[in-house]
Design a protein that fits this description.
This protein has 455 residues and is α+β, with helices and mostly antiparallel strands. It folds into three domains: 139 residues, Beta-Lactamase (2-Layer Sandwich), CATH 3.30.450; 83 residues, Signal transduction histidine kinase, dimerisation/phosphotransfer (DHp) domain (Helix Hairpins, Orthogonal Bundle); 155 residues, 2-Layer Sandwich (Heat Shock Protein 90). It contains nine helices and 15 strands. The strands form four sheets. Strands 3, 4, 5, 6, 7 and 8 form a six-stranded antiparallel β-sheet that branches. The protein has a five-stranded mixed β-sheet with strand order 10-12-13-15-14, with helices on one face. Strands 1-2 form a two-stranded antiparallel sheet. Helix 1 runs antiparallel to helix 2, helix 4 packs antiparallel against helix 5 and helix 6 packs parallel to helix 7. The protein is rod-shaped. The two termini are 54 Å apart. The structure holds adenosine-5'-diphosphate (ADP).
């Protein structure tokens, strides 16, 4: 039963139900018909006995036995007895055994002789004439099954038709459930194909099917699309990451080979070592970023977010950045006091760091960076603005993608820039339920606006 398909189970259940319903209806009809027929037969018996009794007459002082009517009427065998219970006229049915049968007035009794059942009705009549009167018993006997049993034959016909009806119900039920389960079959086929072949581009597409199964199928398709996108993104990420790692490793290998084979002077060795060091730093930077990214992909537990004093955090990060860059670029702040939000301080620190870092990296000599933090009634905004090289309009939507870098001649790649910083900023913003946007003009500067809704 466990391994039976739902189609078969549904069909079997409905067939069983049909047998049960038809069977109970037939049995019910049989019982009703029996009681109706019995009632009719008994009524027929007493009515016949009464009519015979009333038709009797006297011939002088004696009962007239030259009857003008037949004693066998309406399937009823009528018999006449005198008041001493001596048979005067009439016959019992052939198989009827009358010995020992007493007389009971005006009540119908059921007598069974062998396999046959009879109803017997007796009544004592007082037949009067001009010369006197005489008492006469009229006994009526009728076979219980005499009346044509219409219900019996109906029952027999139904019994004969039942297997045929069950067969039609079973085949019809199976065909209907097969039709109804077609979308599920399609769903199963698609999931099997994906399971066996791993082809995530497969779709179920159930047109014109807007019921629960149709919705399930479209949800399934939607889920497949998301899985396919995630899978593609993962593939892209891995290929980009290995590509980014391969470039510095190739440089390291080439430089070390060059140093081994051709470098003669200390200066030449030092130059090769410094290239190797720069590339190794780049790899280390990339690995750190990749690790941070994969941790972010596991989405931190929002329920563990704590209350963060963003004002304090922003001031600390700004001073760290000024210290680290020791640049001709001036950093000015406009940070409102006591701005709090729920979040992860490490991640929010990284977000600020990345944005300010970029502002320095892509700023102009003697330029200005402005960092501001403001609280509105139900939100807060963190803005990093610079007057640096700016970002082309065509690149502004793409800079938040992983590994996306605008024209490499503009990016200061010796600092280990990999195009992961802004993707990380965006991810952190999203984790905290915020939104990030950029406004920028080439050679005029860029403004990154992060907005968080306060709950
Ligand atoms: P990277 O590690 O290359 O800085 P990011 O994801 O931080 O990666 O930035 C992606 C690209 O966006 C950078 O390569 C740079 O071209 C551009 N960019 C980011 N911030 C700025 C900025 N403040 N000014 C100009 N260009 C920027």
């Amino acid at each position: 039963m466990k391994h039976m398909s739902i189609k078969l189970k549904v069909t079997l259940w409905y067939t069983f139900l049909m047998i049960l319903v038809v069977g109970s209806v037939l049995i019910f009809m049989m019982l009703i018909s029996r009681s109706i027929v019995t009632r009719d037969v008994k009524a027929q018996l007493s009515a016949t006995v009464n009519s015979i009794g009333n038709a009797l007459s006297m011939d002088d002082e004696r009962l007239d036995l030259d009857l003008e009517f037949n004693l066998f009427q309406n399937q009823v065998y009528n018999l006449l007895y005198n008041d001493k219970k001596v048979l005067l006229k009439g016959n019992y049915p052939d198989a009827f055994v009358s010995e020992g049968l007493t007389f009971v007035s005006e009540s119908t009794r059921t007598i069974t002789n062998g396999e046959l059942t009879y109803y017997v009705y007796d009544r004592l009549f007082n037949v009067t004439g001009e010369e006197g009167s005489v008492k006469v018993w009229v006994r009526g006997v009728i076979e219980a099954d005499t009346a044509p049993n219409l219900m019996q034959s109906l029952f027999e016909t139904a019994l004969f038709a039942l297997p045929f009806m069950v067969l039609v119900a079973a085949i019809g039920g199976y065909l209907i459930s097969r039709q109804a389960f077609k979308p599920i079959d399609k769903l199963m086929k698609a999931s099997n194909e994906i399971k066996n072949g791993g082809d995530l581009s497969k779709r179920i597409v159930l047109q014109d099917n807007h019921d629960e199964i149709g919705k399930l199928a479209s949800n399934f398709d939607l889920m497949l699309s998301r899985l396919e996108n995630a899978f593609e993104a993962e593939k892209q990420f891995t290929s980009d990451a290995s590509h980014e790692l391969r470039t510095p490793i190739t440089v390291i290998l080439a430089q070390s080979e060059l140093a081994q084979k051709s470098a003669k002077t200390v200066k030449e060795h030092q130059e090769a070592l410094s290239v190797i060091h720069r590339q190794a730093t780049k790899i280390s930077h990339l690995i750190t970023q990749l690790l941070s990214f994969s941790r972010l992909d596991q989405s931190p537990d929002v329920s563990k977010f704590s209350d963060i004093d963003l004002s304090e955090l922003a001031i600390a990060i700004c001073s760290e950045q000024v210290e680290a860059w020791k640049s001709t670029i001036k950093l000015i702040t406009d940070i409102e006091d006591n701005v709090h939000m729920k979040g992860d301080s490490l991640l929010l620190g990284r977000l600020m760091n990345n944005l300010i870092d970029n502002a320095y990296q892509y700023g102009k000599e003697n330029g200005i960076i402005k960092v501001s933090l403001k609280k509105q009634s139900d939100s807060l905004t963190f803005i990093v603005e610079d007057n640096g090289i700016g970002i082309p309009k065509s690149d502004q939507a793409k800079i938040f993608n992983r590994f996306y870098q605008t024209d490499s001649s503009r990016t200061a790649n010796d600092r280990g820039s990999m195009g992961l910083g802004l993707a990380m900023v965006k991810k952190i913003t999203m984790i905290h339920g915020g939104d990030i946007s950029v406004m920028s003009e080439i050679n005029e500067g860029s403004k990154f606006i992060v907005k968080f809704t306060l709950y």
